[in-house]
Amino acid sequence: MDRRLEKVLSAFDRAYTGPICTAHDWDARVIPQKTRAIVQKYGLEKTYNPDHPINTDDNLADTFFRAGMELALEVGVLCPDTERVIKVEEKEIARTLQESPREMVVGSGFDAVVMKHRLPEDPYVPLVGAPLCLVVSEELWVPLVVGLVQKRDLVDIFFGPSLPTVYGRKVRSGTPLETLVGRYEIELRREALYRAGRPDMAQIGSASGVTEYGQLGGWAALAGPTHIANSLSPAELKAPFASFHKVIQGINFGNRLRVGSNSYIGGYAGTSEGAVVLNIAVDLLYSTILGADYVTSNIYDARQFGNCGREGVWANSVATQAVSRNTHLMRTKIINQTAGPCTEMLLYETAVAYMAVSVSGASKICGPRSAGGKYPDHLTPLETWFMAEVFKSCAGMTRTRANEIANRILPKYETQFGNPPKGKSLTECWDLQHQQPSPEWAEIYQRVHRELVDLGMPLREISW
C-alpha cells in the first residue's frame, strides 16, 4: 500500500472512533482554551514586538515550535462530518518528520523545478506558484494566463485563477456545474500554457472548484508526480470528508500532495502568539494525518482581511522559522494583500510580506491576492512578477537586514488598512494584446522599484 494512503486511511478510521466533539464546542471552547493555555505555559504571551516585524530571535522560534508540537498532540484535528477528533501520537509525528521529503521535482522538461526545504536566511532560491484563485472572467482567462506565465524565471508552478462561469453559466459549489468547471478549467489551462510555450509546467488544481467536485471533475487529466493535488481544510484544525476526497484523488492519480489550513489573528486562536502556535500545529498535523508532501499553512489577520501588517508579517515569520529550524518539512505561504492593482500600496505590501517569508525559510509561495480577492478581474501579470522577484531575490538576505527594510516600508501603507485603495481592473491597467502594463501602472512600478532598491532590496528590473 502507498505509504501516504496508509496514513490517510489510518486517520480516516479515527474520524469514526475518536473522541466526540461538536463543531461549536471545537470552535468556541477547545481551540481557544487549549491554545491560550499553551501560550501561557511556554511564556509566549506578548512576545510580538512591533519594532521587529520580522523575527530574528531563534530561541523564540524554537520555543514556539515546542508549544506548537504540544498543541498538536493535545488537540488533534476535528472531522466535522462525524464530529469526532482525530488524535495523533508523538511517534506518528516523529515518523512523519523523518519520512517527509526534503526536496522534490515537479514539472517536466524545460519546466522541471526543484522544491527544497529551506532554513532561515537560506540562499537557495525558492519557488513561486501563481496566481491564486482570484476570479477572472471566462473571456479574459486564457489571455491573462498566457501573459502571466511567460516569465519562466519568475513563475515556476501554475495554480489559478478561478472561473465564475462555465460556458456562460454561473458556477455554484456542489452542483454539476462545479464538476463541469473542473474539466473545463483543465482545457483552458492546456490552451493557455501551450500558447505561452510552457506546456510542461507543474500545475496545482483545481482553482475553480470550491468543494471536492471541482477537483474530481477534471484532475484525472493531470495524473502523475509532476503535478500537485490540492487539499485545503477549513480553519481551525478541521479535516472534513472533502479534504479526504481530494487527498485520495491525488493519491489515486499519483500526484504530489499539497495540504494545509489557515489560522487567524483575532480568530479562535486569539492573539498573534496563539495564531503562531496553532499554525505550527497545522504543519505537524496535516503532514501526519493527510500525508502531505508539503504543507501550506498561513496566518491571516482577521481585522485587516490580510497579513501584510506588522502582526501578520511577524506571525508568519515566526511560524515559518520555527518549523524551518526544527524540521525538514517543505512549506508554502500565501500572502493576502489588501490593495488592488495599479496602486503603490499593493507593491509595498508585497515587498514586505514576501521578503519576510523568504528570509524565514519558506520553500514556495502562492500569490498574489490583489485587493484581497474581493473583486473580479482585479489581477495583472505585473504584481505577479513583482511578487516573484521579491520572494526570489531576497533568498540569502539576513533577517536583520530585512527587518531594517521592512521598518522603512511599513509606515508607507500601514495606516491605510481601514480603507485600502481598490485600484484598477485587469482591462483598465493591462494591455492583453501586447502583454504590457498601462503607462500609469508601469510608472508606479518603476518608481516603487527604484525606491526599494535604494532601501537595499536586491531587485532586478522586470521588463515586458
How would you sum up this structure, described in words?
This protein has 464 residues and is an alpha/beta fold. It has a single domain, classed as Monomethylamine methyltransferase MtmB (TIM Barrel), CATH 3.20.20. It is built from 15 helices and 16 strands. It has an 8-stranded parallel β-barrel, surrounded by 4 helices. Strand 13 (331-334), helix 11 and strand 14 (364-366) form a beta-alpha-beta unit. Helix 3 packs across helix 9, helix 9 (272-289) crosses helix 10 (310-326) and helix 10 (310-326) packs parallel to helix 11. The longest helix is centred in the middle third of the chain and has 20 residues, at 176-195.
What's the structural blueprint in terms of helices and strands?
Elements (H helix, E strand, L loop, with lengths): L2 H15 L5 H19 L16 H18 L1 E3 L4 E3 L3 H10 L3 E4 L6 E4 L10 E4 L7 H11 L8 E2 L6 E2 L2 E2 L5 H20 L6 E4 L6 H7 L9 E5 L8 H12 L3 E10 L6 H18 L4 E8 L8 H17 L4 E4 L9 H17 L3 E3 L14 H13 L5 H11 L16 H4 E2 L4 E2 L1 H17 L9
Parallel strand pairs: 5-6, 5-14, 6-9, 9-10, 10-11, 11-12, 12-13, 13-14
Antiparallel strand pairs: 1-2, 3-4, 7-8, 15-16
Helix pairs in contact: 1-8, 2-3, 2-9, 3-9, 3-10, 4-9, 5-6, 5-12, 6-7, 9-10, 10-11, 11-12, 11-13, 11-15
Record keyword descriptors for this entry.
TIM Barrel, 15 helices, alpha/beta, single chain, 464 residues, globular
Distance between the first and last residues' Cα: 49 Å
Instruction: Give the C-alpha Rg.
Output: 21 Å
Question: What is the count of helical runs?
Answer: 15
**Beta-strand share of residues:** 5-15%
| CATH homolog superfamily | Monomethylamine methyltransferase MtmB
CATH architecture: Alpha-Beta Barrel
Number of strands: 16
What structural class is derived from the secondary structure elements?
alpha/beta
